[in-house]
Amino acid sequence: MKQSVSFTLNHQLITVDVDGDESLLTVIREYLDQTGTKYGCGLGDCGACTVIVDNELVRSCMLSIENVAEKEILTIEGLFSNGTLHPLQKAFVANGALQCGFCTPGMIMNAYGLLLRNPDPSREEIIAGMEENLCRCGSYNRIVDAIQTAALEMNQKIKS
Ligand code: FES
Ligand code: FES
Predict the structure, then answer these.
(1) Residues with Cβ < 8 Å from 147, sequence gap 6 or more?
(2) Is the domain covering 87-159 a CATH 1.10.150.120 domain?
(3) Dist. CA 107 → ligand 2 center (Å)
(4) Which ligand is nearest to the CA of 103?
């Protein structure tokens, strides 16, 4: 049954009329045309659909839209602000941390959540924090390099 659900998406208040059991991923992509978040497995296994909900990492294919009412959602589109790429986005480009790029939005959002919890992770902590996100192209080493680069930049900004 259709219901009206309101939430904040990338700092903007949104209301959608949808079936309450539609996934957050479907609503983001199909109803709101925010296609940066990717559909990979649809089973919670690959991480391509990772977004942030109230500062927590979420696999958006596994969450019903009715469960995000009144919550704050951040997707890859929301990291780009004031015409500037987020340090993670810049670092993925600078380190060549992608090939086809399909996993990249989920990787970046997972890394964003990782750095929220641990702003100065070791290489081992980055690997552990990213291991549930899958990359078919095998860009893993460069993804870890990129996250280290971004963490450095973000921590320097905080200190300056
Ligand atoms: S599409 Fe959601 S985890 Fe794979
Ligand atoms: S860059 Fe292709 S799946 Fe990761």
Answers:
(1) 88, 91, 111, 114, 115, 121, 126, 130
(2) yes
(3) 9
(4) 2
Mutate to test the pocket of ligand 2, among 76, 99, 143 (most ligand atoms within 8 A of CB): 99
Report the CATH fold assignment for 2-79. Ubiquitin-like (UB roll) (3.10.20)
**pTM across the whole model:** 0.96
pLDDT tens sequence across 88-117: 999 999 999 999 999 999 999 999 999 999
What confidence tens digit (pLDDT) does each residue in 2-34 have? Answer: 999 999 999 999 999 999 999 999 999 999 999
DSSP state of 125: H
Q: If you compute the radius of gyration of the chain from its CA atoms, what whole number of angstroms results?
A: 16
Domain boundaries, the chain: 2-79, 87-159
